[in-house]
Amino acid sequence: MADNVVTPEEIETYQKDGIVCLRGVFDPHWVDTVARGIQNNMENPGPRGGSLTPEDEPGDYFKDANVWPRIPEYVDYVQQSPAGQIVANLMKSETARLFIETTFVKEPGTREVAPWHQDLPYVCIDGDHVCSIWMPIDPVKKESGMAFVGGSHKWGKWYSPRNFFGKNEERKFEEDFEMAPDIDASPDEYELRAWDMEPGDCVVFHMLTLHASRPNHSDTARRRAFSTRWVGDDARYAIRKGMMSAPYPIEGYEAGDPFHGEQFPQAWPRVSQPS
Question: Is the pTM of this model over 0.85?
Answer without folding.
Answer: yes
